[in-house]
Amino acid sequence: MPANCAELETRENDVLATYAQISKNSRGRKFPEDPPQWRTQFQRDRDRIIHSRAFRRLENKTQVFFSGSGDHLRTRLTHTMEVAAIARNIARALRLNEDLTESIALAHDLGHAPCGHSGEEALNQLMQEHGGFEHNQQSLRVVQLLERKYPKFSGLNLTWETLEGLAKHEAPPKMPTGDVQSQFPSSSLEAQVANLADEITYYSHDLDDGLDSGLLSEEQLNRDIDCWKIASARIQSEYGDLPKECRHYFIIRCLIDEQVQDVVQTTEANINSAQVTFADDVRHQASNLVAYSKKRHETNLQLRTYLYNNLYFNKIVHEPHKKATRMLGDLFRYYKRYPNTMDSFAQSMITEHGLERSICDHLACMTDRTVILEHERLITITK
Fold it and tell me: Domain spans of the chain?
């Protein structure tokens, strides 16, 4: 017989740590639903996220390089999948709830603007007088309002725990489940793991894309970046001379392994020191328990500074972003003048949410390619 929801929840109780977020202890959903038959509540969340339109759009949204710049360069979708993989590994090592961790990781960039962080900055500037724009808040907006797949509610009706993980710096959402309205200074360990896995991923894989594109060089990294020098020497000692592509892969795999090990060991020590027993004990902590060691944090700051100076603001990366953000500004002003040129869903949002916020939602949901095509259709041709 297939395992039903109750059996899966019993397995969680048997295997997971007491301070993990157990599915049967979920604070529920805004709109009550019958429990899933063959899945836990968090597995249902994961599946709803994967089947959402917002998730599919990530394939054509920029990670670092403008979408379509190269066959092997990462998009926002491949980045998201890699975040989920690393998050699951850390959660498993710490005996946390992998399904909840994966759900948060898969949804963390659903609200990201087109054209990368330049697009986010452009939308935030355009919305300064109307509440601003921030992609974490927009991810919540996507899963609570903008996805329209179900007849009885807007959004995906995800569990409180998944929404908590997406809220990050915002207060987690209120749910009609009795005693859960208190504010917590921290979030679940699963949410903290997903957040740090995002950091591990872009430190490592953005570096990989920079090398693949030729904008970064191994010689420069060996000269300037301590963690690269150490990992490179280790790979050389273990495997000798390797072809360039293979060598890069093994060095970056080494960097990921070192960061994951550091996070697992540091977090385990923090958990023991804090003497937490249950999931809500974690939420009452003054600061996050999932963390790098001080030494690893300093090492990563060196790498982060290097990536900003040599990759993110490199002209070849930055110029296409600047051009695309100008297009976002043109489209925002055009839609403000001619709102009837937006799709019917965006127009239907205006009365309740205001013109500017509805335009912002419409633009944030676009892929890089759609921004270009819409600009060409509405603005370039009419000039």
Answer: 5-380
Which two three-digit tokens encode residue 102? Answer: 């994966």
pLDDT in tens, 73-124: 889 999 999 999 999 999 999 999 999 999 999 999 999 999 888 899 999 9
* Distance, first Cα to last Cα, the chain: 66
Q: Using CA atoms, how far apart are residues 280 and 374, in angstroms rounded to an integer? A: 47
Contact at 8 Å (CB) between 293 and 198?
A: no
Strand partners, 29: 159
What does 211-250 look like in DSSP terms, one character per residue?
Answer: HHHTSS-HHHHHHH-HHHHHHHHHHHHHH-S--HHHHHHH
pTM: 0.94
Instruction: List all residues 6 or more positions away from 181 whose beta carbon is below 8 Å from its beta carbon.
Output: 174
Q: Which CATH superfamily is domain 5-380 in?
A: Hypothetical protein af1432 (1.10.3210.10)
Q: How far apart are CA 374 and CA 131, in angstroms?
A: 25
What's the confidence (pLDDT) of residue 160? 95
Q: What sign has the CA pseudo-torsion 149, 165, 11, 197?
A: positive
Span 249-267, pLDDT tens digits: 999 999 999 999 999 999 9
